[in-house]
Amino acid sequence: MLKFLLMMKFVIPLCFVEKMWWVVQNILYFMTFMFMCSFVLTSSISNLSYLLGCDLLSYGLILLSFWICSLMITASESVNRQNFHEGLFLFMVLFLMMMLYCTFSSLSLFSFYLFFEGSLIPTLLLILGWGYQPERLQAGVYLLFYTLFASLPLLVGLFSLYELYGSLHVMLVKADMMSILIYLGLIVAFLVKMPMFLVHLWLPKAHVEAPVSGSMILAGVLLKMGGYGLLRVYSMLSHLGVKMNFIWINISLIGGVLVSLICLRQTDLKALIAYSSVVHMGMVVGGIMTMTTWGFDMTYTLMLAHGLCSSGLFCLANITYERLGSRSLLINKGLMNFMPSMALWWFLLSSSNMAAPPSLNLMGEVGLLNCLVSWCWWSMLMLMLMSFFSAAYSLYLYSFSQHGMFYSGVYSCSSGFVREYLLLMLHWLPLNILILKGDICLLWL
């Protein structure tokens, strides 16, 4: 595991050399390919090196982090074109990539906490440094205080575990906690990071103000850190989890329906995609909280699927924003006339967002529907509404942006760059090919 960390470290000087944008980008893609080929799919922890190791759960999320960070640089060509501190931007992406890599491969819960919080710093700097509007300062404060306020109890909970067991190693701490305070301390930080309904207000603000790279990493990987933390922590919270989890499932399902209704009233492209992430993460929280094998496996599947799908939609929103200078659906109308070659990508990614076949989202959502209905058949009502409104706001996003009269009344046509088509293909292809090997996610348990 250390060899990839060293490779990232030695790429950092290249970031500050002139005209090295494409070199750094290609090295990141090559590193992703190397990591993909270096892992043997087993349920046990492998590739051990000091406090780092990797099992199947870590492997999928590290690979997703590498992939999204590489695509972030491809999507942020405007930073390179305008010479807007591109060296510093590349350094931030690499620093974030190192933090995510260390978070997902940590075998000690304390080092996991350290890197979990450390990933906040480059994300905040990306939003503050390369965001679009002055409101990005307020969005940064929201992100910082929501996350830090919730994560302090997690630190206290980890210290309590260490006092009880004398170790914070992932494989050694197999506790069955009976203290409600420790239970809350260990899970609240992850619920805010997901984010669960009621603690989700930082997410739309951060997405709307972030540059495209910030939105991609937030939707693609940072939301998954909450799910990853919950999957790790619930192995030691089974006793209290069985008693208390109905609270979080109810909040998530009711919140999912309410946020779906909010999506139907959005006029901002990025805000709509951000709120749809809250709906999907609501289903993920529900799946984890059932504490069933089916729930855990399908949670993992949907996290990977949502990371690729949501990131691709933010790329599309940014491509439109670069042409028209606005994210408003009132202005972004008739894009089928303005950018006819992009209409297919809007359709493919919008349909994946509503879990249409053959996307990996379908497998994840069907599995989560199954495990939640088997947990309590009353949840079928909320799940039915969530599925319906999910289709409704995805169709709303597609039809409002692609159809209608182009706002300027001028007959013009804009083609995308090859880089943009490649970027969208690299989001959509893994999303629809991974379902062919969907049984792999069952190995990690």
From TrEMBL:
Regions crossing the membrane: 27-50, 56-75, 87-107, 113-132, 139-160, 180-203, 215-234, 246-264, 271-294, 300-321, 342-360, 372-398
Reaction equations catalysed: a ubiquinone + NADH + 5 H(+)(in) = a ubiquinol + NAD(+) + 4 H(+)(out)
UniProt membrane topology term: Multi-pass membrane protein
Superkingdom of origin: Eukaryota
NADH:ubiquinone oxidoreductase chain 4 N-terminal domain: residues covered: 1-103
EC class of the enzyme, as a word: translocase
GO cellular component, one term: mitochondrial membrane
EC identifiers of the protein: 7.1.1.2
Subcellular location: Mitochondrion membrane
One of the protein's GO biological processes: ATP synthesis coupled electron transport
Keyword presence, Membrane: yes
Single GO MF descriptor: NADH dehydrogenase (ubiquinone) activity
Domain called NADH:quinone oxidoreductase/Mrp antiporter transmembrane: residue spans: 107-389
Functional summary from the UniProt entry: Core subunit of the mitochondrial membrane respiratory chain NADH dehydrogenase (Complex I) which catalyzes electron transfer from NADH through the respiratory chain, using ubiquinone as an electron acceptor. Essential for the catalytic activity and assembly of complex I.
Family: Belongs to the complex I subunit 4 family.
PANTHER family: NADH-UBIQUINONE OXIDOREDUCTASE CHAIN 4
Entry protein name: NADH-ubiquinone oxidoreductase chain 4
Organism of provenance: Ducetia sp. NS-2016
Gene: ND4
